[in-house]
Amino acid sequence: MMNHSLKSLCKVAPGTVITGKWHSNKYTVLKELGYGANGIVYLAKFKNTQVALKMSDNGMSITSEVNVLRSFAKVQGSTLGPSLLDVDDWKSNRGQISFYTMEYIQGPDLLTFIQKKGKSWTTVLFLQLLNDLNKLHENGWVFGDLKPENLIVTGPTPKIRCIDVGGTTIQGRAIKEFTEFYDRGYWGLGTRKADPGYDLFAVAMIMINTAYPKRFNKTTGGISQLREAIRKQKDLLKVEKVIVKALQGHYTNAIQMRTELLSLVMDRKNPVPVNKSSVTTTSSTIQKQKINQTVSQPTTRQNYRRKKKKSRWAETFIITISIALLYFLYIFQKLL
């Protein structure tokens, strides 16, 4: 939590005009959006645009977060965090306060969106999140304080975005900010060292959180308590394999987790029919079939690439169709 002296220093009333010392941009504060360990975030108006303005008396903290947002901007194809707009200082009657402004991302948080629009959106949003996290990890960062409150779903075509980069940490360092329920150290399932597995543990806990909106308290801790919670919820049982592997740190990157999650969803939608005659097939016959198949269809690099390309096209097609169907359902519900 933020200390009281810092909150008092950065506390301003709606209508206050923040004028940048160096760039002379003027921002009119509309309301407080939230506060954390390193500052307060306000909704502000700049000319005819709404922006999010974060101020803190800790200049080093502001510099660190600004560097994170600049790094995000270099990650092509990723819209994980907000866009950085301005960095400056404000000379108030209580002293000089550092601030920066960023894109104001509007929309409900992840849990609110799922509760309102239905759990059918859950997998699509997690697939998006894992894809963006992978890009972040490839650029040397770990998000850190990953939780539903920091995940906003924007529209009209639902897209998951992060709104607080205060906990984002360079890989290899100690996590700067965390929330206990999503922290693997709290559950005794790992360290607080910034690595991709730290974020993937948090993703697994958010998946659990979708079935327990009010969360639950730690009792015995460890994987046993979390596995028990998973098995009490039908929706979580469907993806238990992925959640448990993420909790135990078995994934080295977000794409591995994403691929297995997509595979589980595909298997549920397209169950393989059981051929009763095959049950009576002897093991020797099966072995011969495998040998013949191996001899008649040698695996070459060209075949492998062709199969991989088909797999990527199939995955893209399935996700696109899923999003389109859910979007049309959303529009239909709105018209009713």
Radius of gyration: 24 Å
| Helical content class | 40-55%
Distance between the termini: 43 Å
Q: What is the highest CATH level, the class of the largest domain? A: Mainly Alpha
Identify the overall geometry.
Answer: globular
The count of β-strands is 10
CATH architecture group name of the largest domain? Orthogonal Bundle
CATH superfamily of the largest domain: Transferase(Phosphotransferase) domain 1
Poorly predicted regions: 274-286, 288-300
Strand order of the largest sheet: 1-2-3-4-6-5
The pLDDT mean sits at 84
Q: How many helices does DSSP assign? A: 12
The SS-based structural class is alpha+beta
Order of helices and strands: HEEEEHEEHHEEEEHHHHHHHH
Strand percent estimate? 15-25%
